[in-house]
């Protein structure tokens, strides 16, 4: 990967955290660096580091000010950032079954009309893209994706829907999402996965991790219902044919 | 299980909390844990529990409780009336509660968040490494929810401490709420930063374990109030389109798309959480280095106060 980013900014977040900002906006190279730095810090932790949070464009680190500090961490992080190989974080490949119908298929008809595509063409475009979990935020397990085809980018709706169901696949501007919880949203929605991205009672509460690569697989209503029932029982079902 | 604590009556937001859930920010799960970490730590220390034990947190008013075995109990957070088996229990001290006796914990005066620790700690099953309740996401604690009358909580092994009381202050009681400007202070013009640091803000009634909304002079951002989401902390002061600052707290969202003008320093988070609704506060900015020195000093003060508990003779 060719990186043309300026040196990262080190932004203070109080006495016990800092943010390494690689870019001001959504940026694939910045996201790759944030993910690579998170992986690097997991593999070789720095003293006093408590937790890390990669986003589309930055990495927030929390630390214990009795052990380390902003200046110490900045000095330790600079050479490690310079040595990062962002392509090194492969990310697990996950197959995500998607039903383009049902209660989360709220905007498919409007999007086909707006974009002058047939329903099948629009679904094929959405299905065929290579997505990556750019960050998890907003709620436990809520996955923000990069990789949405430009032709599918859709401005946020003026009206906020008060409850969009969990598992819904959304489009907001150039971003895409797989929602983990039912929540208010101004994004557009065209399908739903029966997978439960977050279940605190499960041995592995979070199905997806930042950096994971997603491949969507189209399913029908009957398969959706079967998989949803199994997911409700706590089964981890990335794909029934090729279990993770 | 070595005994139980039964909830006979509960205030509106009674939850199991430990020091919080770390390591899951990247999965969208904030730490939860106590709104007032020092008061929580004091309650555990007073009954002889390890610092990581789970205790109960309540908002404004406690409730009534009964233990199945002899225990030590302590209440902290602020001034309140409490009785253990009909005997007065002073806040910031521990006392014996015999098996079957009733503990009553009344309303807090001049504070918002109270803590009740029981010797042995609350031993609900840990979820993702912690017993802390994340109310909004229904994670941890007792079934992920606020406690109700009839709930019965398991207790851990009795540590065998004696009743004790706090003898020195856990932290400074007065003064402005200290912040470090940023991470997005550059989204605000110099006069808006001066307004933020010069004005008084009132804590509004819109407050919970997620956030505190403040009332006061609006803080318009220079180039709009949408940023590409980045990480949030407990203490992040974010400013949405209304211009009214919101301080994110224990159960916050892990990422946010509003500019964050400043971050409240960790030694002042508990004090901020305890400011009654309607009361005024001011902010004061410190450099990062000064804030880190304050954090170390506060950790020392709190540790010294908890190491110097006096027997009550009860």
List keywords for this structure.
heterodimer; A: 244 residues; alpha+beta; Gyrase A, domain 2; Cyclophilin; 2 domains; seven-stranded mixed sheet; four-stranded antiparallel sheet; B: 314 residues; seven-stranded mixed barrel; 4 helices; 14% helix
Report what the structure shows.
The complex is a heterodimer of chains A (244) and B (314). Chain A is α+β, with helices and mostly antiparallel strands and 244 residues long. Chain A is 24% helix and 27% strand. Chain A has 2 domains: 9-88, Gyrase A, domain 2 (2-Layer Sandwich); 93-232, Cyclophilin-like (Cyclophilin, Beta Barrel). Chain A contains 5 helices and 13 strands. Chain A has a 7-stranded mixed beta sheet with strand order 5-13-6-7-10-9-12. Chain A has a 4-stranded antiparallel beta sheet with strand order 1-2-4-3, covered by helices on one side. In chain A, a hairpin with a 3-residue loop joins strand 3 (49-54) and strand 4 (58-63). The longest helix of chain A is centred in the N-terminal third of the chain and has 16 residues, at 28-43. Chain B is of the alpha+beta class and 314 residues long. In chain B, the strands form 5 sheets. A 7-stranded mixed beta barrel of chain B has the order 13-20-17-18-15-14-21. A 6-stranded antiparallel beta sheet of chain B has the order 7-6-9-4-1-11, with no helix packed on it. In chain B, strands 2-3-10-5-8 form a 5-stranded antiparallel beta sheet, covered by helices on one side. Chain B folds into 2 domains: 4-166, no CATH class; 177-303, Cyclophilin-like (Cyclophilin, Beta Barrel), CATH 2.40.100. Chain B has 4 helices and 22 strands. The two termini of chain B are 27 Å apart.
Domains counted in the coordinates of chain A: how many? Answer: 2
CATH class of the largest domain in chain A: Mainly Beta
Strand content of chain A: 25-35%
Structural class of chain A: alpha+beta
Query: Which residues of chain A form runs of ≥5 with pLDDT under 50?
Result: 240-244
What is the CATH homologous superfamily assignment of the largest domain in chain A?
Cyclophilin-like
Largest sheet of chain B: 7 strands, mixed, barrel
Overall mean pLDDT of chain B: 96
H-E order of chain A: EEHEEHEHHEEEEEEEEH
Helix content, binned percent of chain B: 10-25%
Major sheet of chain A: 7 strands, mixed
What does the average pLDDT of chain A come to?
Answer: 92
Looking at the structure, what is the overall shape of chain B?
A: globular
Biggest sheet: strand arrangement of chain B: 13-20-17-18-15-14-21
Strand order of the largest sheet of chain A: 5-13-6-7-10-9-12
Counting structural domains of chain B, the number is 2
**Structural class determined from secondary elements of chain B:** alpha+beta
Protein name (chain B): Biotin-dependent carboxyltransferase
Keywords (chain B): ATP-binding, Hydrolase, Nucleotide-binding, Transferase
Region (Disordered) (chain B): 147-169
Domain Carboxyltransferase (chain B): 26-303
